[in-house]
Amino acid sequence: MIRVLLADDQSLVRAGFRALLDAQPDIEVAGEAADGAEAVRMVGELRPDIVLMDIRMPHLDGLAATRAITEDARLDGVKVVMLTTFELDEYVFEAIRSGASGFLVKDTEPDELLRAVRAVVGGDALLSPGVTRRLIAEFAARSKEPAASTGLSELTEREREVMALVGIGLSNEEIARRLVVSPLTAKTHVSRSMVKLGARDRAQLVVLAYESGLVRPGWLG
């Protein structure tokens, strides 16, 4: 059973999500929070698998709440997905850097929401290639000159190659076709890269690819 915490200051939004999620045989809503501070407290108490976190909330916003959760080693297994009104909300990029596993627009289709919840808990990529590329474009527009990173020295040549392809927004299937390997092999290389670099998920691997200079904005095509 996938346990979800809903964090949104609008009760109608929470009610809509609860009705959808609780209707699924493999998902249950463990609790609801009306602000970021309450969300952090409830995550510590309930230890849900995933938090659907609104970015804009009173007392403590979703960005600060996400950072508090992802920086707490005791909550390492808790995934956070940000909820926003606009796909390229000005805070979305910072949310990914703060440890969020991805983001969803609030008016996303019900099937997409359910798929996203299951994907994140299962360890797969939440961000579609199209959304990832838009996120990368935002990153490229804001980023400074990449800093040299020694972390990449731990990666094999193939892992660096795979990480670069993740960085330009390719899915595991697209990486597999590009390198003429199986999707499982591509996923294994991605997973090993994440472990070696301490990335919580694929979204952070994209950020690290840019911050390390492995991928440059001009690669967007």
TrEMBL record:
SUPFAM superfamilies: C-terminal effector domain of the bipartite response regulators, CheY-like
Domain (Response regulatory): residue spans on this chain: 3-121
Pfam families named among the record's database cross-references: GerE (PF00196), Response_reg (PF00072)
Domain called HTH luxR-type: residue spans: 148-213
Example of a GO biological process term: regulation of DNA-templated transcription
Keywords, sorted A to Z: DNA-binding, Phosphoprotein, Transcription, Transcription regulation
MF term (GO), any: DNA binding
Protein name: Two component transcriptional regulator, LuxR family
